[in-house]
Amino acid sequence: FSCRNQAEMAHTCRGSISLHGALIYTVDACTFVISNGGTQTFHIKASTEVERQSWVTALELAKAKAIRTMESEEDDEEADESGGHDDWPGIARKLEIQLNELQTCGDVLAKHWRNLAKPLSEMEANADPEALQGKTKEVCERATLFRIASNAMINACAEYLETAQNHGHKLVRALQHEKEQRARLQDMVETLAQQHSKLEQAANAHTHRPAINASENEEEDDNEFYDALAEGGGTPNQHGDDLFTLNIRTGHRRNSSDSSSETEETRETKQVVVVTGKHTNIPRTETERKAGTSQNLSGSNASKRQRRVRVPDKPNYPLNLWSIMKNCIGKDLSKIPMPVNFSEPLSMLQRLTEDYEYADILDAAAKCTDPCEQLAYVAAFTISSYSTTSTRTGNRSTRCWVIPLGIAHVEFNSSGNKYSWRKVTTTVHNIIVGKLWVDQHGDMEITGKGPANGIKCHLKYIPYSYFTRDSQRRVKGVVMDGTGSVKWIINGTWDDQVEISAVTGNTGTASNPVYQTGPSVLAWKCRPPPEDSDKFYNFTLLAAQLNEPEEGVAPTDSRLRPDQRLMEEGNWDDANKEKVRLEEKQRAVRRQREAEAERAAAEGRPYQPYKPVWFEQTKEDDSDVIHHVYKGTYWDAKDKQEWSECPDIF
Question: Which N-terminal residues, if any, form the signal peptide (predicted)?
C-alpha cells in the first residue's frame, strides 16, 4: 500500500493502492478488504479477529495521515502559485496589526469629526456675516483633515479585507478538515468500542457454553461504565461493648468529577465521622446463606429479624458511553445528570460502611498487648477495605484516578493506642473500551499516637504489571518500632488474604537486611462471594443487606432514597427521572443557603450554616479540619419515632 506524495504516485509499483483513497471494510470475523473502488482489490484474512481489528485500525490511522499529507501538499502548491507560503502565526500577526491600524484610523476619524462638528454647530447658531466668513475657512480646513482620515480608514479596511479574502478559504478549509477528523475519530472509537465489546461477549459466551443452555445465555453488557468514588468507612452501630473507636474522614481528590447524586450531608469534604462501639455481627455460615437468612446486623440477641442475602438481578440496559461523553464536553461535570447505569444501588454513605465488613480484625487487634503486633492487625484491616474493588466497578469513574485526601483514625479504648492512615490511589482502567477493572497502588503509612507514639507501618501496594512474574494485587509492608527496627512483616494481596509474621532476626546488613521470621499468621481472609453475585452487581452479603428496607428509620436514611430504591428494583428509567429531581432539589437548597449567607454578609449579621442532626462539629487545635462526632441521640429518636429535626432531603 502506498502513502507516498503526489510526485511519487505516478511511479508506484503495479498493484499498489494509495491509502488516501482506499476503501477499507470488514467481511467477516477474520477477513477484511482493501480496494481502490475500481480494478484493484485485496482480500486479506487474519489468523484471529483481534489481529484483523488491529490491522484495520492501523490502516485507518495510516489513511487519515495520508489524507492530511495530501491536503497539506495541495495547500503548499497553492501558496507557491500565489508567491510563497504564509505560516499561520504570520497570517494571524498580520491580521492583528491591520486590526490595530483600523482601530487607530477609527480613533483619528472620530477626533477629526468632533473637530469638524464644533464649528458647524457654531455657524448654525451665529447669524453675523463676518463671523460666518471666519468659520467657513476653519470648516474647510477641518473638512480636509476629516477627508484625509476617511481615506486612510478606507485604505486600511481594503487592506484588511484583501488579507482576509486571500487566506480566508484556507482557514475555512482547515476548520472543515478538523471537523471531518473529529467525526472520523468519533466513528473509529465507536466502532472499536462495539467490536471490543462483541469480542468479550463472544468470549464469555464461549467460556460458559457447556454449563448453560443457549436460550439462557444472556450477553453481559460491557458498555456500562461507572463513576469513581473515594474509599472510606464509618457507620453508627447499635449497643455493644466499646472495643475501639474508628474515625473516618471522607475528603478526597479526583481527576474526574464526583457523582452529583449524593445528599447534602454526604457531599461535604474534609470531615471526620467518629463512631464508637463494637463491630457489627456479619453472618458467615453457608447454612445461613442457603436458608436465605442471617443474623441481625445490630448484633442484638434480644431481637432478630430475617435478613435478605441478595438484591434483584441487575438489568441488562444498553448504554452509549460515547454519546454521554459528547454531551459533557465543555460542561461542569458536577451539574451533568449522570444516568444510574454508571452506579450501583448503594449510596456513598452505605458504600463507606463496607469498610467495616472485616471489623473482626480490629477485635483481634484489641486483644494484642504488643503495639507492633496490634499495628500489624490494623494494617490487615486497612487492606481488607479494598477487597470488593476487584469485582465492584460500580460507584467509580472513572482510566481515572481517585486520590483520597482524608485521614482515617482508630483508637483502642483499653490501651489508648491510636493509629492514623491515608488511603492509596485507586485507578479504574478501560473507561472507553473494554471491561472495567480496578487497581490499587501507592504507599500507605500508618502512624501510631498516644502510648503507641513512634511506631509505624509502611505498606506498598504494587501496581498491576503485565511483565511481572509475581502475583498481581500484591501488598507488602513492615511494622517498625520507635527506633526504626522492623518487628513484623506483612505480605498478601488486597483482594484475597493477608499474612503477618513476627521478625526473629536479621541475617543481612543494616543497608541490605534479610529478615528471619516466625510462623505466618493469617490476619485476614476474604470471604467467598454469594452464589450468582455476578448477576447482582457482585455484591457481598453485607452489601446486599445495606439497602434492605427497614421500618421506623429516619426520613433521611439512605434506604429511603427513591432513585436508589427504583434502581435496585430494576426500574432504571424511573430511577433516572427521580435522580434528576433529587439533584435539582439539592441544588436549589444549596443556592438558597448561599443566598442567605450573602444577605447576612451584606446586612452585617452572622450567618448560621447548616448543622448535621446526629453529629457535633468540632475542630482540631491549629487546624481548619472539621470533625463530626456522633452525639448518640439517633437511637433515642428511633425508639420515640421523633424525627422533627430531620430535614426534607428526598
Answer: none
Mean pLDDT to the nearest integer, 112-137: 77
Sorted by sequence, the CB contacts under 8 Å of residue 455 that are 6+ apart come out as 371, 372, 375, 448, 479, 480, 481, 482
For the packed helices 321-328 and 129-208, what is the interaxial angle rounded to 10 degrees? 160
Question: Are 438 and 445 spatial neighbours (Cβ–Cβ below 8 Å)?
Answer: no
Task: Output the nine-digit C-alpha cell for 620.
Answer: 482540631
- Are the beta carbons of 401 and 426 closer than 8 angstroms? yes
pLDDT of residue 398: 36
Q: How far apart are CA 436 and CA 215, in angstroms?
A: 27
Q: Judge if pTM exceeds 0.70.
A: no
Amino acid at 304: K
Measured between alpha carbons, how far is 438 from 430 in angstroms, rounded to an integer?
Answer: 9
Question: What distance in Å separates the CA atoms of residue 47 and residue 39, rounded to the nearest whole number?
Answer: 26
Per-residue pLDDT tens over the stretch 286-326: 333 333 444 444 344 445 788 999 999 999 877 666 666 66
Closest to 223 measured CA to CA, from 302, 131, 319: 319
- Could you give the CA distance from residue 355 to residue 636 in angstroms, rounded to a whole number? 26
Angle between helices 49-81 and 129-208 (to 10 degrees): 160
Buried b (16+ CB within 10 A) or exposed e, 362-397: bebbbebeebbbbbbbbbbbbbbbbbbbbbbbbbbb
Largest interatomic CA distance in the chain: 122
Q: Give me the residue label for grid cell 420515640.
A: 640
- Nearest CA to 356 out of 396, 298, 415, 301 is that of 298
Distance between CA atoms of residues 554 and 545, nearest Å: 17
The 23-26 sheet, strands edge to edge:
23-26, 31-35, 41-45
CA 503, 504, 506 angle in degrees (round to 5)? Answer: 85
Cβ burial, residue 467 (10 Å; 0-12/13-18/19+):
exposed
Whose CA is closest to 387, among 253, 528, 191, 509?
528
Radius of gyration of the chain (CA): 35
CA 345 – CA 564 distance, rounded (Å)? 5
